[in-house]
Amino acid sequence: MTTPTLPMIDGTSIPTIGLGTYSLDGEDGAAAVAAALRTGYRLIDTALGYGNEDAVGAGIRESGIPRDEIVLTTKLPGDDHGYEATLRSFETSRANLGLDTVDVYLIHWPEPEKDLFVDSWRAMIELQKSGSVRTIGVSNFSAEQILRLEAETGVLPALNQIELHIGLPQDDLRSFHESKGIVTESYSPLKGRAAIEADGTLQRIADEFGVSWNQVALRWSIQLGTVPIPRSKDAARQAQNFDVFGFELNDEQMRRINELYL
């Protein structure tokens, strides 16, 4: 199936679900990435700090999926903030991945104590202008930090990748993103397994559709308008996580989930 996409303010688009790759490294990591792409994923998320860009690049090549169908995200680590350091770090990531271009490049953390994220952002703007990067964004940034980027450079990030899951819907930050046209990408979208299973609400909703509670959690995230990036190295679990477009939660089900642990 063709994965639905969301438009971004820079004119590009992003698939509505992706694969997180933290700790997926070596040959097994490459195989996991290739399996996900063959399943239908078209968004793959990594970071220089994960130490697995080489495996992710290998998995993309092994998959047989045309490169232009894949949206590949990597991230600038906190140790590499600053204008020149950002340019050098990007070249390291590009070499690790074995790819000419990166589709989405994010500042992984704002590192406010260093106060260099605006300088890094200026470098990323230049990388985008050069065509080395298609989309630039941030991760773990507050609304105030995003507004500072806009005020000092005139360029908003196309997306902000944040922790978001059942019990942490990030209502205020999502509303801010929506007001600016910024896509919300959600990492750790399946966090809280023990509490979710003990509560039982998600499982009861899942039973109504004949799916798993994981699928309900991911569907909830998508219907909030966010892009979840669940991590899994298991091909069967990857396929289950991806199978979230054949059902839709109604308003009452969304309300029940929104009220969990709040």
Automatic annotation (TrEMBL):
Taxonomy of origin reads:
Bacteria, Bacillati, Actinomycetota, Actinomycetes, Micrococcales
Q: Identify the domain of life.
A: Bacteria
Keyword NADP carried by entry: yes
Record-linked PANTHER family = 2,5-DIKETO-D-GLUCONIC ACID REDUCTASE (PTHR43827), NADP-DEPENDENT OXIDOREDUCTASE DOMAIN-CONTAINING PROTEIN (PTHR43827:SF3)
Has keyword rRNA-binding?
no
Q: What is this protein called in UniProt?
A: Aldo/keto reductase
Q: Which UniProt keywords apply?
A: NADP, Oxidoreductase
Q: Which positions does UniProt annotate for substrate binding?
A: 108
Query: What family classification does the UniProt entry report for this protein?
Result: Belongs to the aldo/keto reductase family.
Gene Ontology terms for molecular function: oxidoreductase activity, acting on the CH-OH group of donors, NAD or NADP as acceptor
Active-site residues per Swiss-Prot or TrEMBL entry: 50 (proton donor)
Q: Which organism is it from?
A: Amnibacterium flavum
Gene3D superfamilies per record: NADP-dependent oxidoreductase domain
Enumerate the spans annotated as NADP-dependent oxidoreductase domain.
17-261
InterPro entries recorded: AKR, Aldo/ket_reductase_CS, NAD(P)_OxRdtase_dom_sf, NADP_OxRdtase_dom
- What Pfam families does this protein's entry cite? Aldo_ket_red
Annotated site residue numbers, Lowers pKa of active site Tyr: 75
